[in-house]
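Ticket #4471: structure export looks truncated?
Reporter: QA, pipeline team
Priority: medium

Steps to reproduce: submit the single chain below to the structure queue and open the exported record.
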Amino acid sequence: MTKNARRSTRVLRNFLWSGIAACLLRASTFVPAVCAQENPPTDSRIQVDITGLRNDQGKVLCSLYSSPEGFPKEAEKAIARTSSEISNRRAVCQFAGLGPGTYAVSVFHDENSNGKLDTKFMGIPREGVGASNDAKGHFGPPKFDAAAFRFPGGRLDLKITVTYL
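Actual output as written to the record:
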C-alpha cells in the first residue's frame, strides 16, 4: 500500500469515527426530549377560551407554535391548528396530546369563513385577532416571547380576548 493510500485510509477512518461519535452524542442529547414529546399522556392538553368576538359569524381559527418561526402569521409553521364554532360570541379551541414545553397560541375570527385573515391597508387585520397572554404587537403582530407560556403537561386553561383594529 502506498503512502497516499495509507493516509487516505487513515483520514477516512478518522472521519467515520468522528461521525459516529457525533451521532451518538446527538442521540444521547436529543432522544429523551423527543421521546417525551412523542408519548405524552393522552389527557395532556391546552384549552383556549376565546372571548371578545363581535358576532357568531364564521369560525375561530387557532394555531399553536413551539418557536418564534412563523408566529403568528404563518399558520402552516404551527405545530398544531384547529378551529371552533362560535356561540354567544365565545369559542373554545383545544390542543391535545402535548408534551411539556414552551408554546404560544394565536387566534383569529374568520368571519367570512374563507380560511385566511383578511387585512386592510398595510396589513392591518379586518377580522379579530388575539394571542396567548393577550400579547399585543407594536406596529405589527405580537412577538412570540410576549405570547409564550410554559406548559408543564397535564391540563392548562388559557383565556384570549380577541381585538378588532
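Status: closed, not a bug. The export was complete when the record was re-opened. Leaving a note from the reviewer for reference: The chain is about 25% helix and 30% strand.
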